[in-house]
Amino acid sequence: QVQLVESGGGSVQFGGSLRLSCAAPGFTLSSYAMSWYRRAPGKERELVATITSTGRSTMYTDSVKGRFTISRDNAKSTVYLQMNNLKPDDTAVYYCYAFGLGQTSWGQGTQVTVSS
């Protein structure tokens, strides 16, 4: 099973930026589509963005369109989520998710806190 490790979370002020990384040490992610999810306090888990295995296609939930960018570097087995113009509503634990080859895998999550 693919082991996913997120990093890059932290605390920023309204309007700030963060870049999350999701690495899979020792695994090849090129056969997996990848997503970022988030869970805010007291809310359901939400799909934020998805990128296909080749990186040719991406999708975003409406609330982050134009602010977040998902990308991947298959040579480094790493997926990124660039988050710009962050808002307090973006405060959540962000999770990386891999699916492909009949498998799924979740990372442990990284906290993002945006203060107003």
Total helical elements: 0
Number of DSSP E strands? 11
Give the end-to-end Cα distance, rounded to a whole number of Å: 39 Å
Helix-strand pattern, N to C?
Answer: EEEEEEEEEEE
Strand content: over 45%
Largest sheet, strands/sense/barrel: 7 strands, mixed
Mean pLDDT equals: 96
The 3D shape can be described as globular
Structural class, from helix and strand content? mainly beta
- Rg, Å, rounded: 13 Å
Helix proportion range: under 10%
Which regions are unreliable across 5 or more consecutive residues at pLDDT < 50? none
Core attributes:
four-stranded antiparallel beta sheet; mainly beta; seven-stranded mixed beta sheet; globular; 116 residues; 11 strands
Give the SSE map.
Blueprint (H helix, E strand, L loop, with lengths): L4 E3 L2 E4 L4 E6 L9 E7 L5 E7 L6 E3 L7 E6 L4 E6 L8 E9 L2 E4 L3 E6 L1
Parallel strand pairs: 2-11
Antiparallel strand pairs: 1-3, 3-8, 4-5, 4-9, 5-6, 7-8, 9-10, 9-11
Write up what this structure looks like.
This protein is 0% helix and 53% strand. The chain contains no helices and eleven strands. The strands form two sheets. Strands 2, 4, 5, 6, 9, 10 and 11 form a seven-stranded mixed β-sheet that branches. It is globular.
